[in-house]
């Protein structure tokens, strides 16, 4: 519990430092937030490792554990991107989310997981990386929409100056989508190769929704390359694809594990 509380406190401290920097109208914001953010992520990951060592079976990959791991992935990606450029503002959303997901996971408790073997474990970790990366893309899409809306309304606030220029933010969005799309492609391929029976493992709905999300993301990338899609169209396609992906993984897990009480 001590590790969890310290990690949550450090996440919130990093958030507070970011908010202070953004409201002080500094561009880019000072990197004082980076140290507590990195420390929080290390403790977050260490907690999952500690649970894996003390729990029978493989690493805990159940519903709230998976949510917490996605939060960890998002916080790590935010620290990496924010340390290199002007996208530290992502942390204002990501770091509190990671803290809440970690606290929720600890409060719910830990459950023994089945031994997956290296093939299914590879598939599971690729899936978590894909969800974390594309979740960052969804946040970037929302920020892009907010920035466009503020510029249209000539509502120039301090937080707007903490973001990169509109064209740079849009470029970062599509680069993030491209990386996430590649990870999602590998996830689907390893699922086809390594999963023996979709019906027996209750993966049909998850697979169908994941493939639909993959098609939407792929169409968006093609539309960007061939037709120059951007702005609100890019935002709508990104959020639609992410909604399908959330339903695929966490929607199906919620129903199977928490509603039906099955693993």
From TrEMBL:
GO terms for cellular component: plasma membrane. Residues 36-258 form the Cytochrome c assembly protein domain. The chain crosses the membrane at residues 33-51, 63-81, 87-108, 120-146, 172-195, 207-223, 235-256. One of its GO terms (molecular function) is heme binding. The keyword Transmembrane helix applies. It holds the Pfam family Cytochrom_C_asm. GO terms for biological process: cytochrome complex assembly. This is Membrane protein.
């Amino acid at each position: 519990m001590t590790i969890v509380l310290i990690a949550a406190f450090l996440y919130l401290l990093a958030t507070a430092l970011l908010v202070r920097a953004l409201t002080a109208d500094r561009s880019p914001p000072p990197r004082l937030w980076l140290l507590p953010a990195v420390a929080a992520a290390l403790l977050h990951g260490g907690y999952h490792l500690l649970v894996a060592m003390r729990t029978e079976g493989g690493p805990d990959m159940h519903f709230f554990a998976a949510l917490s791991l996605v939060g960890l992935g998002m916080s790590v990606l935010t620290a990496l991107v924010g340390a290199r450029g002007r996208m530290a503002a992502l942390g204002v959303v990501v770091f509190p989310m990671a803290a809440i997901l970690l606290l929720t996971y600890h409060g719910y408790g830990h459950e023994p997981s089945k031994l997956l073997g290296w093939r299914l474990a590879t598939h599971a970790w690729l899936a978590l990386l894909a969800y974390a990366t594309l979740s960052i893309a969804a946040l970037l899409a929302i920020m892009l929409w907010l920035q466009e809306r503020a510029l249209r309304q000539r509502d120039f606030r301090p937080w707007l100056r903490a973001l990169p220029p509109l064209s740079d933010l849009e470029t970062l969005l599509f680069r993030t989508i491209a990386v996430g799309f590649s990870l999602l492609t590998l996830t689907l391929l390893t699922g086809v190769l390594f999963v023996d029976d979709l019906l027996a493992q209750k993966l049909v709905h998850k697979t169908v929704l994941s493939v639909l999300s993959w098609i939407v993301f792929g169409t968006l990338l093609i539309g960007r390359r061939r037709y120059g899609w951007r702005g609100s169209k890019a935002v709508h396609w990104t959020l639609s694809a992410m909604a399908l992906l959330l339903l695929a993984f966490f929607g199906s897990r919620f129903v199977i594990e928490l509603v039906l009480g099955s693993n």
